[in-house]
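dumping this here so i dont lose it
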């Protein structure tokens, strides 16, 4: 089993983070893990947090409303509004912190994501561009632990894909 590394690069001039990560599974499995709420809830939050989907409508104009619940019971709500979807190739979204009703919290920065999926031999390379309105917004997200949290979530996804692959190959 090949171990993959999450590479996160900061581009201050473009107000963007570029993340690249390979996963040891075919595109259709990785795509499903990023777009199916039952699977997202199993890996999206870095442990010991858990992701819980309140609602998801994965289509252009749809949204994913979810929270991350901490071990002390703290709850952090988020909302991702899907902008463009090209099945198993890429999707874009606008992500923001919100409340339990999906009303955006403007005290925290929002982000524009483009997630692209590429087949590379027997694995899938995911390339993510996250752009911000201001450099300060990017810095705030980084200070909130984005790099560490997203890297940990990718480890969760590795574990989920390995289990799923075992089931598919049994």
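and the seq i came up w/
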């Amino acid at each position: 089993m090949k171990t993959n590394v999450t590479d996160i690069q900061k581009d201050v001039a473009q107000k963007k983070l570029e993340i690249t990560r390979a996963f040891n599974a075919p595109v259709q499995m990785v795509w499903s893990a990023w777009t199916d709420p039952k699977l997202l809830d199993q890996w999206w939050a870095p442990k010991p947090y858990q992701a819980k989907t309140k609602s998801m409508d994965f289509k252009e104009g749809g949204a994913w409303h979810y929270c991350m619940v901490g071990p002390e019971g703290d709850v952090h709500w988020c909302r991702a509004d899907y902008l463009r979807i090209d099945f198993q190739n890429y999707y874009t979204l606008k992500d923001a912190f919100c409340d339990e009703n999906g009303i955006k919290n403007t005290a925290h920065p929002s982000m524009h994501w483009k997630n692209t999926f590429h087949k590379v031999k027997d694995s899938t390379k995911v390339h993510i561009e996250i752009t911000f309105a201001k450099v300060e917004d990017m810095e705030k997200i980084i200070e909130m632990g984005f790099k560490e949290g997203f890297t940990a979530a990718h480890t969760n996804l590795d574990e989920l894909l390995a289990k799923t692959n075992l089931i598919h190959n049994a």
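The first strand starts at residue 7 and ends at 11.
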